[in-house]
Structures are given as C-alpha cells and as structure tokens.
Amino acid sequence: MRVTIEALGAAGDGIARDEAGRPLFIPFALPGEVVEAEPGAARGDGRTAVLQAVETPSPDRVAPPCPHFGTCGGCAVQHLADSAVAAWKAAHIAEALSRAGFRDVPVEAAKPSPPNSRRRADFAVRRGPGGITIGFHARGSSEPFDMAVCFVVEPRILALVEPLRALFATLPALHRAGSAMVNLLETGPDLWLRTDAPLAPKDRTNLAAFAAAQGIPRIAWSREGTRDTPEVAAQEGPVMTSLSGVPVSPAPGAFLQATPQGEAAIIAAVLHGLPRRMPGKPRIVELHAGLGTLSFPLSARGRVEAYEGAAEAVSALAAAAGRAGARVKATRRDLVRQPLLPAELNGVAALVLDPPFAGAAEQAAILARSSIPRVIYVSCNPAALSRDLAAFARAPGWRVEAAVSVDQFLWSSQVEAVVTLARGP
Asked: Which residues bind S-adenosyl-L-methionine (predicted)?
C-alpha cells in the first residue's frame, strides 16, 4: 500500500490512513514521507503495518547510529533528527496539557541528554542451548537479544555485558531466565542480579570473586519474578551517590534519574517554578521524594517536608539529610492509600509532586481543591499527567505558569515534563 505519513504517534510510529480511512501505524516512517507499507494486525481502531520502502524521505530523516536499531526495543526514533525529536516530545506534552483542559500552553523543549550518558540499565538474561544471551528486550518481544554496542548507556555499564555473560554461565542459580540491573554510582557500578533459582554457596563464592575482579562495591540478589527485597550477596566496599553535593547511600536497585543531565534539567525547572518571594521560613512539601534528588536543592529555599512510601528510600534520605545538616524532614507514608489532606497543607508555600508512572489521581484531586498556592508537577507519563491535571483545570483559579519537557531517554518515545501550576490571573 502506498501512503503518505500524516503524523508521528506517541510511540514513535508514523501514522497514515488506509483506503477506508483507518489509521495505519508504521514504525520507522516519518511525517511527510510517501512510503510503501504492508498492512498487518489490528491495533486499536486501526492496523499496524511494516515499512517496505521510503519513496519520498523526510528532510528530518537521518542515518541511525546504532546497528541494533530496529531490533532493539529501547530506541524508537534514531532515524529522526534531534531537533525534530525535541519538537515532537514538547508537542506531546502540549497535547497532554490540552487534553487536561489547559490549551495553547507553550512548552519549552529541552535538549536531549547526550549519547552514552544513561547511568541505569536493566539487562534481561536467558540461558539457552547456545549459551547465555544478555541485552535489552528485542522490539515487540519479551526475549533479549545479544548486545554488541549501545549509544545510550554509559560505557562503564556496557563494559560489564561480556563479564556478566561469563558470570551467568557459571551460576547454577540461573536455570533459564534472569536479569541484571546496574546503577552507576560515584563508588562504581551497583549490581542487582535476579535469577530463577536460589543462590547456592558456590554461586555466592563466584559473586564475591566477580565483585573483586570487576571493582563492584556491592552485588545484591533476589528471586526473578518476585517482589522480594534484594539481599546483599557480595560487598567489597561502601556504596554512595551524590545528590546535589549530598552523599547518599542507596539501597540496591534504588531509583535514580536516568542521566545526570536529565536530573539537572528537572532540578532547574522545579526551582524555577518556586515563588519568587516566599515567607520567612517557608514550608515546601515534596511528595514521592525518593532518595532526595529534589529534596536537597529545595532545602536551599525552605524547610522541606519530604514524603515517600519506600522504607529504604526514607531511611537513606533521612540519614543523608542528618549527616549534611539539610533542612529536610523525611517521613514514610503510602501516598496512594493515604494522600495528604487539605488541612495538612495549610501554610505551605509550594508543593512538589513527583509521582511514579501511574500518576497520582487522588492526590491531584485533593491538591486542586486545597488552598495551596502553587504545585510543581514532575511527570514521566503524559497520559497520567493529562488525567491528573484535569482536576486542576476543573477547579477555579488554577493556571499553568510554565511547562518544560525533559528528554533524558534518548531516542525513545518517553518524555518527562515539569509543569508549574499557580493560582491567580
């Protein structure tokens, strides 16, 4: 079928129309291109299609740098120029705001994080007749492919792929499926392994030798497919990362922003969203604070009341704040089951809400009805952002003062946003 691509969808697919006017979702096709495509399976109200040939290429089409592009499920738009990716992601946030009820809001398009800057990676591992396969999931599959190169992750993480392959080959605890998550900290790679069978004494010996040989301060382990708290299987030294200059000791697998550049962009946008003038000793409330990525920079502007549901994150944040003398009070609270109520927000100068991917629908509705003068919403999911901010659009007096897109997921369809909501004209 010969079609013209009308737009780029949220997943990075080119969108065209078939002869009946139904949408065709064509991966690797770009807006304005005339392409040949083979229609396939149903998807929503349309069909997927396989790109066969590009007859008229877009001026924004570029050569993908990675030989795995198209096979790897991580990157969706390596074939699109960086400036066009930034505009597309900013438009995605503007569309989410419009669906919420805040129309015609200009969205600042941030620069993407540079190649090879991602400091977190979660590799899938499989044992098969041909040996160990380790890498990211293949496109449209739950199975990994063998990685040779990657232009997204930090080289020090990529350098662990082949040693990890050799390690897993020696572990009886890996029957078929496992994974290896790496957080790159100031003290080195922090490794969390998951296998589908328990660790034997020999496995633990192998892990200790691997940690010593690779300069890995800590290796944690848990059973694949469970939500068990990881146990430390080998420890060579202290584990530490720095958040705005404050040393923090994270738990295995702790959440960090994907890149240092993305973290800096989010912090800058959040601080810019604070009121220019705040009362003496202002109260700043932060929800879903994690390890304190935002808590510590916010504490330079006021007293921070940081709420977080994960016990290990609260402990790490509280200990770090105590050592640094930071104006941060960390409190454990399940914000999904027990959101903050309006009476608890009296006298708060600003609130920062940084929920997980699913968003914070109940908390957003409460905040929209409260007397709080300013909310800064940090979102990694435009769909949740749109749903949650609709509560503010329905409530009287709220406006979007600023919106910034943050692209720390290079060449993927993912995008983050920092949206400042304020009361008044």
From this structure: 257, 308, 354
